[in-house]
Design brief:
Elements (H helix, E strand, L loop, with lengths): L19 E15 L2 E13 L9 H9 L8 H13 L8 E14 L6 E15 L2 E15 L1 H18 L7 H8 L11 E12 L8 H12 L9 H13 L4 H13 L4 E10 L8 E7 L3
Antiparallel strand pairs: 1-2, 2-3, 3-4, 4-5, 5-6, 6-7, 7-8
Helix pairs in contact: 1-2, 5-7
The protein binds guanosine-5'-triphosphate.
Length: 296
């Protein structure tokens, strides 16, 4: 090790006095635990530089503060501790600290009918900030689902009716002939378009929250939509999925309203905003809807 004192440039005064909104590090790789799963999160951590004359902050202190989270369950007390470390290690320099973790949490999900299950990755982001006004923590998750267009379904039904009238011109129709016809390709002459869709749900946590409600948020969203994308699928599961889609025809507006109602029931939320994106197979562009409650 070098025996000489090391130059400390950050401790010098700057010739360009100016406070800075945010200084820190972005993209630190950190193994954490979230919703009982091991996750490698990408972490941004920083503070404001309110001392206009100070040259720099102490990056290493922020890095060490984030290390507290390694292999630990990510919850509100852990996040608060890191923010507190950031501020207490930057007294005189900084009035606010922020911590952001993003990654993908793998959750085991059962098949609809068969006894199978599989893993689904849910992108998440946790954003926390502490400043003179207090603490704000937000949890964001992305949920993938299928949406079948209700208008397209109605148009397809009309074509099926027309085909029926064509194939059975007599008013008196034979039951077994109709049954056979319903099981043939003529019986389903048109199909509605459906698309893989994404809901991005952003919750501001209520002040009494201890745990990050990752599972509660995802479960409530998937239940409200009724058509979450599946993992392991046998034909029985695929048939159940077809039924779920048929029973949950959705414009993007319908999906946004369903999710809004579901999120209003979550006691862990003091505010939220949400966005749904239907990657239309009808168009080369997306159908998008947004909603919020108590968000400012
Ligand atoms: N402030 C700042 N530091 C940087 C930057 N890029 C690299 N660093 C380095 O980050 C390292 C850690 O900084 P400090 O936390 O101040 O390190 P230290 O002085 O050994 O630690 P303390 O004694 O706790 O202050 C230093 O070697 C800096 O040169 C930058 O853009 N800004």
């Amino acid at each position: 090790m070098n025996e000489q004192p090391l130059p400390d440039i950050a401790a010098q005064a700057t010739h360009h006095e100016l406070p800075l909104d945010w200084v820190g590090m972005a993209g630190i790789a950190l193994p954490i635990r979230l919703a009982d799963a091991a996750v490698t999160a990408s972490v941004d951590i920083g503070v404001s530089l309110d001392d206009a004359g100070a040259r720099g902050i102490h990056m290493s202190r922020l890095y060490l503060a984030a290390q507290r989270l390694v292999h630990q369950p990510l919850n509100v007390p852990a996040v608060l501790q890191v923010l507190d470390d950031c501020l207490s290690s930057h007294q005189e320099l900084s009035d606010s600290a922020t911590l952001t973790l993003r990654g993908e949490v793998p959750l085991k999900r059962p098949a609809l009918v068969s006894p199978l299950n599989g893993w689904k990755g849910y992108p998440f982001e946790v954003r926390a900030r502490q400043d003179g006004r207090g603490v704000n923590i937000e949890l964001q998750v992305e949920v993938g689902y299928s949406s079948t267009c209700p208008c397209s379904a109605a148009l397809a039904r009309q074509l099926i009716q027309q085909r029926f009238a064509w194939d059975f011109p007599d008013q008196q129709v034979d039951y077994s002939s109709v049954l056979d016809w319903l099981g043939s390709t003529q019986g389903i002459v048109a199909t509605p378009h459906s698309q893989r869709s994404t809901a991005t749900l952003q919750l501001r946590l209520a002040p009494d929250c201890i745990e990050l409600p990752v599972l509660a948020l995802i479960d409530s969203a998937e239940h409200a939509l009724g058509t979450p994308v599946q993992t392991a699928v046998k034909r029985a599961d695929e048939q159940a999925f077809a039924l779920a889609n048929g029973q949950n025809l959705m414009f993007c507006e319908d999906a946004a309203r369903r999710l809004h109602r579901a999120l209003r029931q979550l006691p862990q939320a003091s505010a939220f905003r949400l966005k749904v994106v239907h990657a239309e197979s009808l168009h080369a562009h997306d159908a998008v809807a947004e909603s919020s409650w108590n968000w400012c």
